[in-house]
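Course assignment 3, question 2. Fill in each field.
Student: A.L.
Task: Predict the tertiary structure for the chain below.
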Amino acid sequence: MPDFYFHGSLVQYWKVIYAEYQRLFSAYGREPFEFISPNPKTSPLAEYIPDYYDLVEIIFWEAEHRDFLVRVKADSALDSDLVNLYISIYITPLKQYGEANLSTWKAVENSLEKQGLLIRPTAQYQVKKKPKMQEEKKRKLEQLREFRLKRIKETGQAPTKAYAMSEVGISYATCKTHDPQLLKNWKDKDYE
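Answer field:
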């Protein structure tokens, strides 16, 4: 399984990664990463257009250009408009030269993520947890319920939500997240 999918074709990936190369080259004043495939000695990068079955491979060197730390291989995913991205981070040079040397790879990764072009294959399997309620929020929700019931007993009707929430000092968003039933049944005099 690839580490990421690129949302688009291999040609689109090439255009984006080559634009990143040019952008970072301008920013750093040096080559930010090196193209292994296509070979820049045999294929001028500015004119290169990958075929469907081509492999685009780049490596990120450590700052002194003694050893490479990251290798990114990209190939077309079969039967889809996606590109498989295989990321290899080499531990021995990483330990030797330090994690700060990953900054160029991280800059490229972050740029692609901000553009919405990277898909994490395991993202669909990650369970979204309901936010945990802090003790303070529990206490405030309980105060809100008590305030509402007290007003119903005193006046025969529920106070406005905005008034009750401001009196207790709790936000509508917190109530909606942690006690949506209370909001739904706010005017129901029998709801406790």
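Instructor remarks: Residues 4-125 form one domain. The chain has two domains: 4-125, 135-184.
Grade: pending
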